Amino acid sequence: MLQPKLISVKPEENYMLLLVYKTSERKLFDVKPYIKGSWYGMLKDKDYFNSVRLLEDGTGIEWNDGQDIAPHELYDNSIKR
Hints:
Order of helices and strands: EEEHHEEHE
Strand content: 25-35%
Largest sheet: 4 strands, antiparallel
Strand order of the largest sheet: 1-2-3-6
């Protein structure tokens, strides 16, 4: 099953993302396990991390330099809030 479309993403404390889906589900996703290496390590910078944005079609998220996390990982590996 495909995950529902995202309607918003909001950076939270401790490298968490609040994801709100079209189904009204609100989920928290922990980005900390992804923050390693030179590519995703850029997310350690709080200002950069906070620049996360929703893809125009609501299928995912990304940062300015192209870092992203697969939509199914966001949905399946987050906890309800």
